[in-house]
Amino acid sequence: QKEVEQDPGPLSVPEGAIVSLNCTYSNSAFQYFMWYRQYSRKGPELLMYTYSSGNKEDGRFTAQVDKSSKYISLFIRDSQPSDSATYLCAMTSYGNNRLAFGKGNQVVVIP
Amino acid sequence: NAGVMQNPRHLVRRRGQEARLRCSPMKGHSHVYWYRQLPEEGLKFMVYLQKENIIDESGMPKERFSAEFPKEGPSILRIQQVVRGDSAAYFCASSPRPEAGELFFGEGSRLTVL
Lengths: 111, 114
Prior knowledge:
- The complex is a heterodimer.
- By secondary structure, chain A is mainly β.
- Chain A has strands at 4-5, 11-14, 19-25, 32-38, 45-51, 54-58, 61-66, 71-76, 85-92, 100-101, 105-110.
- Chain B is mainly beta.
């Protein structure tokens, strides 16, 4: 079983729709959870950073963590064409030197 | 406030040559990480360094790859005798809070081996 599972299938949505992305993980020690946005040929940009379970909202973006189910989600409201990118989930435990990444989810927002 | 700076952005090497990738962390950060991204794959950890110290190189291939972060100057990821399988994007990251995994990445160096 992979440490982090993220369905890489491309996701196409019309402009204004809600985008829903998720990752599952197997390591119960993970407690720091991140979502990165990566535009084509660019570096990953830290989008959301959360600690432990719960919700975090930042503008049109909401990150949710359910540690009991080992499941994290990212929601993008009122999606825009500029949101078209690959979204990577990542996670780690305290003092761990590495992030475990999902494979990434390509999102296309159609005008 | 400059972000993580990487150069070169693109590098082409022939099989058997050496590749050197450089990274300067964000101002005030003294911890540097190197990750590799293969096509259609997620980012894979390679090495974690502080100034003059390799803290964790458990993700580095045992041969041909080395990394350093000298007291002065950028961190260097060195790949000797490159092979086609080394073609990838190499990303450097730095962190203000390494214990909590908050990493900020550079734009990457894309290595193509002919």
